[in-house]
Amino acid sequence: MATKLPRLGDLEHELLTLLWAHGAMTASAVRKALQRELKDATIRTVLRRLEEKGYVAHRVESGTFIYTAVESRERAAAKAVKRIVDSFCDGSLERVLLGLVDIAVIKPKQLDALMGRIRRNLKSR
């Protein structure tokens, strides 16, 4: 899979979020889980687009397509953040993190907890 995933439209993101939450689903199950009424053809088209973009894969069971997310929500989010870091901060994650601290998106207590997790993760490598 490519490290750079294409951006998602709102409906694409909504369907991908359902796959992350529920695991493997048919197009019909996705349509039923949505909070709005859409045609089956619309759902299948969006799922096919997500597959073309590399976010979703399918398998066929008894003639029915079953869709799954290719990567976890966290990995997809990390790739999206990387796009932002590259676009707005010339690749400097430090600048992004400082900005998040400056506008209080990340509280000092959260930052300390995150640093502890990072240290433990590095030691286990």
Shape: elongated
Give the helices and strands as they follow along the chain. HEHHEEHHH
Rg, Cα atoms, Å: 18 Å
User: Strand tally, please?
Assistant: 3
Q: Helicity range of the residues?
A: 55-70%
Count of DSSP H/I helices: 6
Strand order of the largest sheet: 1-3-2
Structural class: mainly alpha
Please summarize the sheet with the most strands. Answer: 3 strands, antiparallel
Mean pLDDT: 91
Explained architecture:
The chain is mainly alpha-helical. 62% of the residues lie in helices and 11% in strands. It contains six helices and three strands. It has a three-stranded antiparallel sheet. A hairpin with a 2-residue loop joins strand 2 (56-61) and strand 3. The longest helix is centred in the middle third of the chain and has 17 residues, at 73-89. The chain starts with 9 loop residues before the first helix and ends with a helix. The model has no long low-confidence stretch (mean pLDDT 91).
